[in-house]
Please model this.
Amino acid sequence: MPDSSPLPVRDTAWPNLHVSRHPAILHKLAILRDERTEPKKFREVVRELSWLLGYEALADVDVRPIRISTPLEATDGHQLAVRIGLVPILRAGLGMVDAMLELMPTAEVWHLGLFRDEKTLRPVEYYNKLPDSATVDLCLILDPMLATGGSAAAAVEVLKRWGATRIKLINLIVAPEGVDLVTKAHPDVEIYCAAVDRQLNEIGYIMPGLGDAGDRQFGTGGSQ
Ligand code: PRP
Ligand code: URA
Model:
C-alpha cells in the first residue's frame, strides 16, 4: 500500500527531494508506465502530472499584497512576486511546458537541448539560447526522467553560470543514482517527483521506469 497521506514525503537521506503521494498522481503514474499507453494518451498524462507536480513545486513562492476592486468593493489580493523561468530539457521536457504555463502564464521559457550519449551516458549539450545574464528569480528545470543525473546536473551548472540563484527540478520519475548525484553536487536544488524507482539497469534506464520518455511522447520508439 502506498503512504495514504496526500502530502509530499521527504526522505531524510535526501532532504531536498519531494515525492508526491497525491492519489491523482499515483493513479496517473500507473497509466504513464503501462507499455500499452499510446503516445497520445502518454502526452496527455505527462501534461497532467506536470501540472500536479508543478502545483506542489510552486507552493512556497513569494507573493506580494495588492489592492484590487471587485464589482462590489475594494479588497486585498496577491500577486506573484518572483519572475519564473521554465527550462524544459529537449526533447522529453517539452511535454511538460504547457501545463506549467497554465499554472504560471507569465513565466519565461528557456529551452536547453541535452541528449545522453548512449555509450558514455554523459550529457551532450546541443541547444542553448539563454541571454547573457539571468532574467528570472526562480528556474524550474522540466524533464520527465532523472536517471544517472548527468543531464540534470549539467542543466543546473548551465543555469548557475547564467546567474540563476534559485533552481528547482521537476521530474516525473527519478532513480536513486540520479538523486544522489544531483543532491551531492547541488544541495541547494530541490527535486519534485512522482516516484523514486528502484535502480538503473546496465544501459542506464530507470527500472521499472516507463522506457524512453522522449520516444513514448513522440512515437519515435520504432519497434521498441
Ligand atoms: C532523457 C531524459 C533526460 C535524460 C536523463 O533524455 O529526458 O534528459 O535522458 O538521463 P540522465 O539522468 O542519465 O542524464 P534523452 O537523452 O533520452 O533525450 P531525448 O529527450 O531527446 O529523448
Ligand atoms: N531516459 C529515459 O527516457 N528513460 C530512462 O529510463 C532513462 C533515461
